[in-house]
Amino acid sequence: xxxxxxxxxxxxxxxxxxxxxxxxxxxxxxxxxxxxxxxxxxxxxxxxxxxxxxxxxxxxxxxxxxxxxxxxxxxxxxxxxxxxxxxxxxxxxxxxxxxxxxxxxxxxxxxxxxxxxxxxxxxxxxxxxxxxxxxxxxxxxxxxxxxxxxxxxxxxxxxxxxxxxxxxxxxxxxxxxxxxxxxxxxxxxxxxxxxxxxxxxxxxxxxxxxxxxxxxxxxxxxxxxxxxxxxxxxxxxxxxxxxxxxxxxxxxxxxxxxxxxxxxxxxxxxxxxxxxxxxxxxxxxxxxxxxxxxxxxxxxxxxxxxxxxxxxxxxxxxxxxxxxxxxxxxxxxxxxxxxxxxxxxxxxxxxxxxxxxxxxxxxxxxxxxxxxxxxxxxxxxxxxxxxxxxxxxxxxxxxxxxxxxxxxxxxx
Length: 412
Hints:
Blueprint (H helix, E strand, L loop, with lengths): L15 H14 L6 E2 L18 H18 L6 H4 L5 H13 L26 H16 L11 E18 L4 E4 L3 E12 L3 E8 L2 E8 L2 E5 L8 E4 L4 H4 L4 H7 L4 E8 L2 E9 L2 H5 L6 E13 L5 E13 L4 E18 L2 E17 L5 E17 L13 H13 L2
Parallel strand pairs: 1-8
Antiparallel strand pairs: 2-3, 2-4, 2-15, 4-5, 5-6, 6-7, 7-8, 9-10, 10-11, 11-12, 12-13, 13-14, 14-15
InterPro entries: DUF620 (IPR006873)
């Protein structure tokens, strides 16, 4: 299996000589091949890559359509022993889990990301729901200790554990609804690095499969086992794992232009609800081939009593034009966040649970499919200002670097 970035070498034992040798090894490992678009929602399998001459994004969505077709044709009361005999069923389930939950991204690109907290004073003509949202964010920064933090964190190192669960699929034929499949789960772990502004690197292993993703501040890239030796790339956005309690300042930046929708109870907590939507230009950047992203919205639920973020939900809708009617894919992820602990004066969430649903429906059809997935995650270790960590650890794979360089050299 190819590896991407040497993210494990960013500790205090690193040296400048090892940095240059690591950079050299990276360019030897990766090979120059056509890049796959960074598809979101389920990240489908790249089957028969060398023989496949179709548009890459079209092939991605064809795999996803076939996955739901397999689920629809399974008997509704299939026992676990029989389900494991369905060809590649566990492998396909794991790919769907990793495509949705391994490294989802936030909807808003933070091009102006910095280590300073968001501004606290705004013009008089600012709408009430916007000014209220700014006030809630200031309370959140104060509650997490960011406003009184003396030393700004330049980078962060995090390790954690995950358990991913694929639940049943609900299938409707227009006349009846049935549940197919059974629950199956896989455990794993991850290592995450972050450097401001906007650089991050993630390596996650679940069920024997590894997903490696990262951002150099301009481009986001991802490598999965079924992509072969090359990676997929897309426009820069924050990693969702970072904003769900690991980086309060980054979360505050994300909700800088949010609106307050009111109040809602989450469990035992009365919360303020903030909403932020991706602008049209940012959404259009993610269109690829027959896939068109319609919208991507993020909701944050901030506890009125403690001021911290306790629930995060985002939903994005993609329209895929096939040979027949258009098909819509809506992916929603809701995350409960808790177990806040003090790390160098900042409250960091150490535990959470995410529930994701993938909903497929047609424009002119009453048929639909809905699959539910879960992830339980915990943080084992967090460290700020790791000595020796440099921007070299966040460089994209060689094929993406070569593509970006060729594009810039042809620019007028």
